[in-house]
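request received
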Amino acid sequence: MEDGGVDDRPVGDRDARLADLVETYARQVAAFDDLVARVRAVPLGDAPLSLEAEGTDPGD
Amino acid sequence: MTEPDLLSLSVAALGEAYRRRTLSPVEVVTTALDRIAATDPVVGAFVHVARDAALAQARAVEQVFREGGEPGPLAGLPVGVKDLVDVAGSPTEAGASLRTGRLATADAVVVTRLRAAGAVIVGKTRTDEFAYGASTPGTANPWALDRVPGGSSGGSGAAVAARQCIAAIGTDTAGSIRIPAALCGVVGLKPTHGRVPRRGVVPLAWSFDNVGPLGRSVADVAAVFDVIADPPPRAAGRSRLGSAEVPHLPLGAARIGVPDNHVFDDVTPAVAAAVRSALAVLERLGAELVPVTVPEPDLYEAVLYTMLLPEAAAYHAEDFPARAEDYSAQLRKALTIGSTLSAVDYVQAQRVRGVLQQAWRTMFADLDAIVAPTTPMTAVPRDQRFMAWPGGRTESVNSAYVRLCLAGNVTGYPAVSLPCGLDDEGLPLGLQVLAGPHQDRELLELVAVVEDHLAFDHRPPMA
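response:
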């Protein structure tokens, strides 16, 4: 079942499915948090402030 | 000549046959439309077929030939266009129920250029919802109908492989041209970011979105690229190999980077063997293989998604969450996460991107190309969701398919996928070759030589 669809399965099944969805969602959010944490961990002391200004845009 | 044989002709051979009057554009376009009608109930590559408009366009091209005129470099070429790209008079639904029936009133720039070159748009090809995915539900892989074609330009890859059209247009934000090219055994080019105009194309994330061609040979892809791309900026300079006018360059002077990290981690033995075999061919041709190290391999996915999701959320802000029920659960999650990210994180990801671009630019200062697999595995069964790698790591199929393509999108530099063999199940394997910024044409010339020597001449069972 996609979120928002009509589910005519027994309540126990739906609860289990919902718990699974919540867990999947939480896992994906945690995975995404990990990705953002990797960005935050990069030391950016001398890194460019603007792609265009620093000539790093491939469209230059 | 059988239907698939006729639609296996190259762009150059087709043009020559038209000019010698041994074939006519109406005959070829009719054959393409008939083949779509016959095979698409099984392949599902097209979501809209523009039969009347295509035949009218073919007749117009034929008339120009008949009057002794020159209709253009892609005259009478049947082309499929991903359903993210506006074709006037056809719907642009972007694989999304939210856009059902939404008619385009004008051509995207890329379609205007195709038409001006004489190409005939036969229809719109299937995509993942708003291009967010790598499996193209609803489209089968012509090599094995129970397998995914890759995505999100899976309709374009499958259509070219199934001989429903001779070339197609796709888009690539995280590998979406190269992945279906690899899985469907065709050639796909992700150009330098910005080289092909994106006006009239539904965006996923504009910092990474690219429009590019898929075809059955490097020459066909180059012919379409030449028509749809802007010229390189003057400051881009020339490749080490030299002139773009030389069609097939000797490889004796080429320096090819071979990563000693990242690109052979968690790939199937068949993928690793095919790429190593292609590298051996390059070496035999006189190219110098140079070990290189992919800088900061853990950062590409991080940078891409930290920018992609907020950009997607921004594009969809008018409709999401107001019309959340019209989005799939997968896209809803992505847009929700994208809406919650801070501006600081987005900007920092841009800066990290700049650092990575600079590192790759430095690598390319002394190299003509870098070689890697396009995907870690061939086409998986449609119901497979995860890959279990021998070391114990589990990875979603979508994450695995995009993993080796992300550097091309994060740097913005050009990358091409070309077929380099079949695995023991008879499924195509893709070789990815990347080059420095604006070296698109030089990259195509280099891989044309590789293509000659790999001699991939297999066809899917249905073609």
